[in-house]
Write a structure and sequence with these properties.
With 290 residues, the chain is an all-alpha fold. The protein has 15 helices and no strands. It folds into two domains: 148 residues, Four Helix Bundle (Hemerythrin (Met), subunit A) (Up-down Bundle), CATH 1.20.120; 76 residues, Orthogonal Bundle (Helix Hairpins).
Length: 290
């Protein structure tokens, strides 16, 4: 019955259905194997080539910012940059046509980085001064974790990201408190110091309070009166006492996450804890974990 039904369907529709069932065509699968695979020899060579091209492009952009070097090799830099960008463009198109879900790749993190890394070079044809933005392609070095199979590093990054997310409310309260403090201190310093000292407005005084409480201290603005210097000393002490607060919040969340990771995963038979989240069997009695 299915054969009779298909016999009345247009040939183009039948081919589309077959392609949908099979997935990628052989040549697309071959491209995908080379571009995204790290097991084959060609896949590894492609990844190494990609890293070399990224590094070469970044070096060219940095050297081009040196006036003496740019004056001598301006033409060579242009040729190299557009050649590398052209290769990156071809690679980006190949990634799109060799994936089963093109839109998923385009709107993914690496898909966005791959696109943004090639746009600044083309924008230089219409807008001057955009070429230095091409250094964003340095983010493509993150692929080295996948290329070198450094899964432990990516797990560590996930732990930090999760700790930051879990402590977002505490960090938010801390930031709001700090903003309140620097606004008040900035207004106080604006009242104490004169415009000749650099405190020409409350926003500029708040800027001074921020760089002082964070112990940066550029030195472009400094209090001149004894009262202002006394307030500045208090701000510096406050800065030293609270500078470690965000670190402590995130560190406590990481420790808490590690404790939960080992404590909540208990064996249903012996009730022992201390198992990894991906463990399948109890390390104490051998019972299969739920």
């Amino acid at each position: 019955m299915e054969i009779v039904y298909l016999s009345y369907m247009p040939k183009k529709v039948i081919n589309n259905l077959r392609e949908k069932e099979v997935g990628l065509k052989p040549w697309q699968e071959k491209i995908q194997e080379v571009i995204t695979g790290t097991e084959t020899r060609m896949g590894k060579l492609f990844d190494i080539w990609l890293l070399i091209m990224i590094l070469a492009s970044i070096v060219v952009i940095m050297l081009e910012s040196v006036p003496s070097i740019q004056k001598l090799y301006a033409h060579e830099f242009i040729v190299i940059e557009f050649t590398i960008t052209g290769l990156f463009t071809i690679e980006y198109m190949l990634r799109i046509i060799s994936t089963r879900h093109p839109l998923r790749y385009i709107f993914s993190f690496f898909g966005f980085i791959d696109l943004v890394s090639i746009l600044p070079t083309y924008l230089t044809l219409f807008i001057s001064g955009t070429k230095p933005l091409a250094v964003i392609r340095a983010l493509r070095f993150l692929r080295i974790f996948r290329i070198l199979e450094l899964s432990n590093f990516t797990k560590g990054a996930d732990t930090i990201i999760k700790a930051l997310y879990e402590s977002r409310h505490k960090i938010g309260v801390f930031i709001i408190s700090m903003l309140t403090i620097v606004i008040i201190l900035g207004a106080i310093m604006f009242s104490i110091e004169s415009p000749e000292s650099g405190f020409t407005s409350i926003p500029r005084s708040i800027y001074w309070a921020i760089i002082t409480i964070t112990t940066v201290g550029y030195g472009d603005i400094a209090p001149m009166t004894p009262t202002g210097q006394a307030v500045a000393s208090i701000i510096m002490l406050i800065g030293y006492s609270i500078i470690a607060v965000p670190t402590g919040i995130v560190s406590a969340e990481i420790v808490r996450g590690d404790k939960l990771k080992y404590q909540l995963h208990a064996c249903p038979k012996c009730s022992e804890t201390g198992h990894e989240l991906d463990a399948e069997f109890c390390k104490f009695c051998g019972e299969k974990l739920k």
